[in-house]
Amino acid sequence: MKLRLYHHPDGARIAYREAGSGPPVALLHSAGLSYREFEPVVEQLTDRFRLVLPDLPLHGDSEDRPRHSYSPDWLADVIAGFPGETEQDAAATEALIDALPFTYLHVFPYSERPGAASGRLGERLPPGAIRARARELRERGEAKARAYRARRCGQRADGVMCGRGDGKVEVLTEDYLSIYLPTHEWNGRPRFEVTVR
Questions:
Q1: ∠ CA 177-108-66 to the nearest 5 degrees?
Q2: Helix axes 127-152, 87-99, angle to 10 degrees
Q3: Which residue stretches of the chain are H helix?
Q4: Nearest alpha-carbon partner for 108 in 135, 75, 68, 70
Q5: Which terminus of the chain has fewer Cβ atoms in its 10 Å neighbourhood, N or C?
Q6: Average pLDDT estimate for 72-81
Q7: How far apart are the first and last CA of the chain?
Q8: CA–CA separation, 83 and 23 (whole Å)
Q9: 189 pLDDT exceeds 50?
Q10: Could you tell me which CATH class the domain 2-152 is placed in?
Q11: Is 70 exceeded by the pLDDT of residue 68?
Q12: 156-165 and 191-195 as β-strands: parallel, antiparallel, unpaired?
């Protein structure tokens, strides 16, 4: 796998590796790890997918001094109904999502952009089919998120206060779970340990 760098317009630099050919699939590692988490499965998938294995910000070979905050949706996007996507492709995407340890998916339906290369890649799907595929992927993502949160419930996590209102503060954990605490339970520090609820 060849190391590459993605330079986002906002200045972030993300290291990633690519391997294989076919529909693109991004494999996102767990907090505290790197792309190497997926090395054992790369060989099994490269004959069917073009794999993209990023080192998330502050991990592996990616930048160690970010100038802004990150959230998982910055990298974990899933496009539903890409031009030329067959029923078999959609089923393969669903199977891959089911098989991988995702805890959050940002799913959006494909929409054509003037001049984008994607418009020349294959036949466009009917809008109803795109919406249905996006809905199915969102439901899978929501089920994975609920299951992950249930596994984490009662456990302690490092959290950062990221907002407040209506007598509550929002705390974002290191694994991107939002915890809402009554303001009187907040100790006033921007970073503190919190119990996942």
A1: 50
A2: 10
A3: 39-45, 87-99, 127-152
A4: 135
A5: C
A6: 64
A7: 40
A8: 11
A9: yes
A10: alpha beta
A11: no
A12: antiparallel
pLDDT digits (tens, 9 = 90+) for 24-50: 888 888 777 788 888 888 888 888 888
Our CA dihedral for 120, 125, 126, 132, rounded to 10 degrees, sits at: -140
| Rg for the chain, CA atoms, rounded | 19
Buried b (16+ CB within 10 A) or exposed e, 105-120: bbbebbeeeeeeeeee
The pLDDT, as a whole number, for residue 10 is: 57
Interatomic CA distance for residues 18 and 10, integer angstroms: 23
CA distances from 118 to 35, 82, 88, 179 (A): 27, 8, 19, 38
Q: Which pTM value belongs to this model?
A: 0.59
Residue 67: what pLDDT? 47
- Name residue 184's amino acid: H
Q: How far apart are CA 100 and CA 78, in angstroms?
A: 13
> pLDDT grade, residue 76 (50/70/90)?
low
The dihedrals phi and psi of 48, each to the nearest 5 degrees, come to: -115, -20
Report CA-CA distances (Å) from 125 to 77, 94, 111, 122. Answer: 19, 17, 10, 9
What φ, ψ does residue 88 adopt, rounded to 5°? -65, -40
